[in-house]
Amino acid sequence: MKRHSDSVPEQPTIRPPSEWRSTLIRVTRGCNWNQCRFCGIYSHLGEPHYSPRTYDDIARDIQLLKERRPQSEELFLGDADPIHAGVDLICRVLDLLYQSFPAKKVTSYARVSTLKKIGEAGIDRLAKHGLTRIHLGLESGDAEVLRFQRKGQSPQMVTDVSTWLRAAAIEQSFYVLLGLGGVERWRQHMTGTAALINQLTPEFVRIRRLWLYEPDPVSGAPGCPLLTQVQDGSFTPQNAEGTVLELALLLDLLQPSPTFLTCDHSNNVVQVHGRLDTDLEEMRREVRAFLNLPETQRRLLYEEHRSRI
């Protein structure tokens, strides 16, 4: 993985699709947790180790970006969990960003466990220094699914952290993974997830499908860690139709709220978007209309979708 040079700023390995306009600021490299069975993506992409960057290196990158994109109003902090590098460092970086750009939005990934550790006071400091939105991997609201997938968080931890973020007026973007409970536990997965969303009403819910990527024989990059459980029979992956049924159940269980739900990734078979207080019924109808198509037509659509991703 290419490191810092005097003329090229480092870039985060991954950023949310919704941050495609944002100027990217790399605070850490890789994932400090790197134990989730369903993920392992940083190792697959050539970033197997975690390391925080120094303030001086980050500041040098910010200066380079200021020269190239001086009118940036939206900025994103990466990689997987920048806040793990410390509240003091993030606050210094935030201060420098607001001094350097006409920033209106500064967002970040964060692990629930890290936010739990820094506590309400740490979150409040981040808000005061201008962090406006956090992207959280909820993945599931079911405690057993989270335990099996080694996510390192619980529904109660999510509840505590979400409450603190709301009090600090930091927007929350929850990510939900269809298929994460497998065939064995898909109903509990969706039931628990809907319950948390109904309780916490985050500003955004972003839907993804579980991706069981294979090892790359050319580069030697490892495959998804969850393939081990698929092979030993302790996890049975959902097929495409199963994940659509999960989406249908989730929408049936969700209650009207200002939350904006979106399937904003190409790996979703059915893509619906809308606010839960105004568009929920329409989203339910769209998914049910898909499931009511003739089986042969649905199979063709599943095959077409698989060929595109």
Automatic annotation (TrEMBL):
Gene3D superfamilies: Aldolase class I (3.20.20.70)
Residue ranges of every copy of the Radical SAM core domain listed in the record: 17-254
Keyword GTP-binding assigned: no
Pfam families recorded: Radical_SAM
Domain of life: Bacteria
The keyword Chloroplast is assigned to this record: no
Cofactor (UniProt): [4Fe-4S] cluster
Family matches, as InterPro entries: Aldolase_TIM (IPR013785), BchE-like (IPR051198), Elp3/MiaA/NifB-like_rSAM (IPR006638), rSAM (IPR007197), rSAM_sf (IPR058240)
Key words, A-Z: Iron, Iron-sulfur, Metal-binding, S-adenosyl-L-methionine
Protein name according to UniProt: Radical SAM protein
